[in-house]
Design goal:
- This protein is 37% helix and 14% strand.
- By secondary structure, the protein is an alpha/beta fold.
- It has two domains: 4-141, no CATH class; 157-488, no CATH class.
- The strands form four sheets. It has a seven-stranded mixed sheet with strand order 4-5-6-3-9-12-14, with helices on both faces.
- Strand 10 (344-348) and strand 11 form a beta hairpin.
- It is globular and about 55 Å long.
């Protein structure tokens, strides 16, 4: 009787290739064995790639497809157990950051290494049937690499203490930060809210640095379009990119976007600044409702304004071709008091709205959010470099009343440090972006547990009055919104 090597040399081509396929299937089974989101199986395209590379001698390609489908039934229990133990061992190596990339790479490396001992045997045997050795090498040396890494749910995770926070001084950044939001300049004495960093549960979030941001946004424009919470995020980012310092290479380019102070106005409709070193522009445009607003009677200074629920702001139509990253938000201006004070009249289809369902504030807001997301999504094919985000709503924390009925937010500690749910706490925003290429910047849940981060009763003037449990102290929670944005641009 011949030895083991002689037996291998004597095997038929079909049996050898089937043996190779068994090892491929072993890797597939092991990746699925734990039923974990860390790994996915080889796709159909990879199956076809392997089959295509196999030689056609003796009609093997015709028969081997059936053998490939049935190959998993031939796996021995000992082989499955071996790979199962290896995967469990590798999985335990996952670090405390939940970094799955290392686990995936090590597992793939182990599977590829385990196939190498067969290479020489297959080459020796197959070449006896006049199959080019290069073809065999191509099959065996093709690494298994098409493994999808799990998408990061940035909204799920926990707040952790961080000594490298805040990212800029609460006493500085006077060039960009409104004094009413700089809580270090008020009577507040507790500043623990500045020392927390958001840590997603299943992935590591890249640290924000000024240099990395400017390099990533070189020759590009980032635009925030939304309400005063969008303005806070804009000011936060300006402070983060400058480090709170006044820089000589930052130029006011508001005129390029029509952002100038109109006669009789207390401030322009927005601001735009350009970092000359990298030609990076950051701008903010005030559009509290994300609707197109136009005067019903332009000749009347006290005229009402048509609030077109199904039209995006005219600013977006005019300047979208100059924007590379867009962040939209709306929410807190959707109440009857705001609409009446601004003299906004709901319009749909170019006419005053007559649909009672839309006349409801909630229905009108939802229609607007879905409409603007749909419009932006329709523009993305025309602007391939544009990345668009809809930011979920920033939560309010009024306790024991509303802003005008004695509501307060005096807590100095977070409500919690962890967010465990997978779904967003803003179902309207999440529903609007679903099925589109507009991304959700999900900040609601992680902000909801930070009730101590609001401006509360503090002010520069030290005057008693209503508490602000809507806006945030800066530095503070909105800095994290920008860290999430940076990680996803």
């Amino acid at each position: 009787m011949k030895g083991g090597g002689g037996y291998l040399h004597g095997m038929k081509m079909k049996q050898l290739c089937l043996l190779f396929l068994v090892f491929i299937c072993a890797s597939i089974v092991i990746w699925n064995w734990e039923k974990t989101p860390l790994l996915t199986t080889i796709t159909t395209n990879d199956h076809q790639q392997v089959l295509h590379l196999l030689p056609d001698d003796d009609g093997l390609n015709t028969q081997v497809q059936d053998d490939f489908i049935q190959a998993q039934d031939l796996l021995s229990p000992s082989l499955s157990t071996r790979y199962d133990d290896e995967f469990r061992k590798t999985s335990r190596q996952k670090n405390h950051h939940g970094n799955t990339t290392t686990v995936v790479e090590e597992s793939v490396s182990q599977v590829n290494d385990s196939l190498k001992p067969l290479k020489q045997h297959l080459i020796t045997s197959v070449t006896t049937s006049q199959t080019p050795e290069s073809d065999v090498n191509e099959v065996i040396d093709t690494p298994i690499t098409n493994i999808e890494k799990p998408a990061c749910n940035y909204g799920k995770g926990k707040w952790v203490p961080a000594e490298n926070r805040p990212l800029y001084s609460g006493f500085g950044c006077k060039q960009w930060l409104s004094g009413m939001w700089a809580c270090r300049l008020t009577q507040r004495t507790d500043f623990g809210y500045e020392k927390l960093k958001w840590q997603p549960k299943h992935c590591k979030m890249e640290d924000f640095t000024r240099s990395k941001f400017l390099k990533r946004m070189q020759d590009k424009t980032l635009a925030f379009v939304g309400d005063s919470l969008g303005r806070q995020q804009f000011q936060s980012l300006m402070c983060m990119v400058t480090g709170g310092e006044e820089l000589s290479d930052v130029e006011d380019v508001g005129k390029e976007y029509g952002l100038v102070l109109s006669p009789g106005s207390t401030r322009p409709d927005g601001w735009a600044y350009r970092f000359l070193s990298t030609n990076t522009t950051i701008l903010y445009y005030w559009s509290a409702s994300l609707c197109d607003l136009e005067p019903i009677d332009p000749t009347n200074p006290t005229t009402d304004y048509a609030m077109h629920l199904d039209r995006p702001p005219a600013f977006l139509k005019h300047f979208l071709d100059k924007i590379h990253a867009l962040v939209l938000n709306t929410g807190h201006h959707w109440n009857r008091g705001k609409l009446n004070a601004n003299r906004w009249v709901m319009y749909v289809g170019g006419k005053p709205n007559t649909d009672r369902r839309i006349a409801d504030i909630g229905g009108a807001k939802n229609l607007t959010i879905y409409s603007v997301v749909k419009w932006v999504d329709s523009q993305l094919p025309k602007h391939p470099e544009l990345k668009a985000f809809f930011r979920s709503i920033s939560p309010r924390h009024f306790f024991n009343g509303e802003w005008n009925t004695g509501g307060t937010c005096d807590s100095t500690t977070p409500g919690s440090l962890e967010v465990l749910q997978d779904e967003s706490s803003d179902p309207i925003a999440a529903g609007a972006v679903k099925g589109t290429n507009v991304k959700l910047l999900d900040i609601t849940g992680l902000s909801l547990v930070r009730e101590e981060g609001h401006i509360s009763r503090y002010s520069i003037r030290a005057a008693p009055g209503m508490q602000d449990c809507l806006h945030w102290c800066l530095p503070g929670v909105p800095d994290t919104w920008n860290e999430l944005l940076f990680a996803q641009i």
